[in-house]
Each structure stands twice: as structure tokens, then as C-alpha cells.
Amino acid sequence: MPKTTIEINITKYFKNHTSLDILAINNYLEKCDEVIFSGNYCRFILEKKHPVRGVYGRYEYNTFYCNKSNDSEREKAAFFISNLPSDYITDGRVSLAFGLQWITLKDDAIRICKCFLHGHNNYFLANEVQKDIIDKYRYDYIWLVYDNYDILWKLLYNHQNIFKDYLSQYPDYCFNSLREVFEEIVRNDFDGQLAQCLQKCYVYKVHEIKRIFIFKQKLMIGEKLSKEEEEEFNRLKKIHYIPNKLKNLVFSVAIKRQDIESIKTLLMQKLDVENALSRHERKKYYYPEYKNHLSPSHTWERGEKSLVIKKGWEA
Questions:
Q1: Is it the case that residue 293 has pLDDT exceeding 80?
Q2: d(CA 73, CA 93)
């Protein structure tokens, strides 16, 4: 008997739905063998419900960019980005909610790869907005993330001797090149977002995320946090952000060497981008057309997502 399949385009689906209709998806699985959720560059395939392990799926994508032996270092880094998030982050069996999270990150990785190859002379993102594949909010976000990585790349590659000397003092970090340093930092950024979903229990609380945003806004305009606010800010960051220790180390080195004009300039550019990201994040709280980018309070437990509000805390 031939396999029956239903395909759901995620971009189109979420234009008409604020969240997944799990009941409808279960009904689909009763009638067919698999449901395919497609992103722009990848897809997540939900298998028929298993009597023991429940509903799980697998993800698939085509390699966007072929790594060649004569590629430049930057082209090799772009190839690396296109293959994020890392395949090994799960055991191959992922839940529906985790699969959808993966689709978002994979599509973003491909977009950032394209930006990294061609820079701001590339119009493919504008074409995606024009075709209604992404909205203006996503468009601006991708370019800001790219700008951050471009600054990091220039920081490492324009000051190779400085960073090689400093990193050689840390035996825990063994890299053959500064490209590998860059790749490890980017990998930690992408994989860290999925690793959060795989924790024993991670609770995403909207009011806490908004508090982090408020503190960032205060710092951005030069306002000092009170002792209590600083303690709360640091506590919330530990809960909601997985630290990228290598990135922190690289920028701590850069701050020490601000006496070099080119490093100082790049650090100022990074501050501008971080401030722009903070202003951009503000839009989803205050602009009605971007409300669909707000996520409700939820809990992740080893890759399974629940919207249940647990006893003892407020959303």
C-alpha cells in the first residue's frame, strides 16, 4: 500500500494560526503515514504515532553550499554556518515542537550563510520579504545577526597575531586556525538555543524575558542599574541564556587591546549592532504587526514543549 503524506508549509501556516493545532495534526496522522512540515530550506517529517515512543520525527535538508578545497577561509566558514545547528545535538528522534524550533534555526543558518558569502550587496532577503516568505521583523533580525558575525570575523582575521597569542595561553581551547575559533563561537550560538530545549526542565517566562529587555534598554541609554536590578539582571541571564564562553573570551581580549584603533572601531560597531538588536526586540512588544514573534510562557522538558503554567510561578 503506498505511503500517504500531508505537507504543511510553516510560513503559510503561522500566518493564519498563532500556535499549532495539535488535535488537527493528530487527526492528520490518523489518516496518513506522515506529516511533513516544510521551512524554506529544510523540512521536518513527523512519523505515524508509535505505540511505545509516541510521536517523533526526523529532519532533512539539502546542503546549500559545497565545500571545495580551493575555497577561501570565509567561504569555508559560510559552509560551516549552512550546516548548523549540529546534527549530533539530538539522538535523531525529536518531538514536533523541537522539530519546528530546528526548522526556524536551520532556515536562519542558511540565510546567514548567504549573507556571509555576499554581504549587503545580496538582495535575496529582500526577495523573501517581497514573496511573503519572511516579514520585515525577520529581515532586520537576520541582517543584524550577520553584522554581529561579520564584526567578529574582522576582529579575528584583521588581528590574527594578537588573538593567536592570547588564545595560546588557554590550553582548553585547541584550534588549528582562527576560522575554527569563529566557527566554534557561531556553533555555540546556534546549538545553545536547541540545548536549552533539551534541558531537564527549562521554563520560559514572558515576564522575565521582558525584564531582561527592560534592563538592556536602561543600559543602552546609559542608565545605571541599581544593585538589586543588577543582581536580578544577572540571575535572569543565567536562567535564560547559555553562556558562550569562547565568545566572551575573544571580546575580553579585544577590550584589553582597545589601544589599537581598528579594534576600538570594531568594538564600537558591535555596540551599535547590540543596541540595534535591543531596539529591534522592542518591536514585538509594542508593534501589533510583530506580535506573532512573541512566544507565550512555556516549559521545555528534554525536548518536549508544554504550554502548561507550572504551580508556583506566574507567566
A1: yes
A2: 34
Q: Distance between CA 110 and CA 112 in Å, rounded?
A: 5
Phi, psi of 5 (to 5 degrees): -135, 140
Residue-wise pLDDT for 74-133, tens only, equals 999 999 999 999 877 665 567 778 888 888 899 999 999 999 999 998 889 999 999 988
